[in-house]
Amino acid sequence: MRYQISGKQIDVGEALQTHVESALGNVMEKYSQRPTDANVVFSRDAHMYVCESTVHLSSGLTAQAKGQATEIYAAFDACCERMDKQLRRYKRRLKDHHRDRTAPVEFNGASSYILAGDDGSDGEEPDSLQPMIIAEMEARIPSISAGEAVMQMELQHAPVLVFRNERHGGLNVVYRRDDGNIGWIDPQ
Q: Which intervals hold domain Sigma 54 modulation/S30EA ribosomal protein C-terminal (predicted)?
């Protein structure tokens, strides 16, 4: 597994890097034998240290966790506990969904845009009703089942996930509804 351990205006020493690699490696070995890479970022928020970790699995899932504490090692340990709890909670589903999968999940590229709209606070009518594009990024769309999409959306704490349904190849969307349930849009 590849590790990328960095700090935002914090010097991350060799001892902390070794601790992160061993502890995160133990969690991943316990619940998933196929992690591809891990990204761990340390930062400060007032007097607290914050640790954010993202682990990409070859099955297409991305697990994210965040922890904070007054000491940097305690912040990482809190983050690692949350990652452990997430993977333990979804262990059965991960195992059942990927038993037959021999190859990694395929990803298709897509463009992602951030649009800036005029809020109309100055009281004037805009020249054009088209919003201005302020950022263009590359997004990855996984080819997975609906159950895997819901699981990935929950692991990422995302409000919505666009995916290619591996049963029929069409684009689908799963999202968290206001009532707490999961919605699934399948245009087929």
A: 130-183
Contact criterion met (CB below 8 Å) for 2 and 24: no
| Domain harbouring 79, CATH code | 3.30.160.100
Cβ 94 vs Cβ 32: under 8 Å: yes
Q: What percent of the chain has pLDDT over 70?
A: 72
84 and 117, same domain (yes or no): no
58 three-class SS: coil
pTM for this entry: 0.59
What's the order of all strands across the beta sheet hosting 35-45?
2-7, 35-45, 48-57, 62-69
39 within 8 A of 53, measured Cβ to Cβ: yes
CATH code, domain carrying 117 = 3.30.505.50
**60 three-state secondary structure:** coil
55 strand-pairing partners:
38, 63
pLDDT digits (tens, 9 = 90+) for 94-133: 555 545 555 666 666 676 666 666 555 555 666 666 666 6
Examine the domain organization and report whether 89 and 139 are in the same domain.
no
Alpha-carbon distance of 173 to 160, in angstroms, equals 7
Residue 102 resides in a domain:
no
Q: Are 96 and 40 in contact (CB under 8 A)?
A: no
Q: Which domain range does residue 118 map to?
A: 107-185
